[in-house]
Amino acid sequence: MKKFNLGKFKLRKVNIDEIDDRMLLINLYGTQALTLIIGLIWIFFQHQSLFSLFAIPKNVNFVYWVLGLGVIVLAVDIAISRFVPDEVGDDGGVNERIFKNRPWWHIILLSFIVAICEETLFRGAIQHSIGPYWTSILFATIHVRYLRHWIPTGLVFSISYGLGWAYEQTGTLWTPIIAHFLIDAVMGFIIRYRKER
What we know:
Oligomer: single chain
Number of strands: 0
Shape: globular
Largest sheet: none
Number of helices: 7
């Protein structure tokens, strides 16, 4: 058996163009799995019930929050992408690489997995401990690719705060999960199907 030498292990910054599609997906799914595992462990130590956290709401009023938040976020995001120079909203090409050449079903799958994993950790676990404001700061921080520019950082913080506020108003984790899913899926489809300028 070959020994693993930690002395030869080096960390370096990697450009998105240096990662092939397979490695991009491995990183994406791996980080989402880690996010979900951390969220579930955190929820366990908070003594929250997963059954009540993921319970299907008895009434459909939460759908109004989902649709309202989704429409507002998408309208702002589309306005920013239309009127703000591309370099100000640049994420280093990550979203382009993730969505541009994916089939429609994979965009839906990715959006659903990201929504479940991130909302379980951030709304289900962290927000339960520190509230929506500080949770949103953490949420914006882990989306490190946006931190170079204040507009996308502010947008990610605002979306996160909106998701947290909607969760508090409706009392169901399905509100931020479904809103997050719709936002990511629609933006993924826009990236996938938009015509090149």
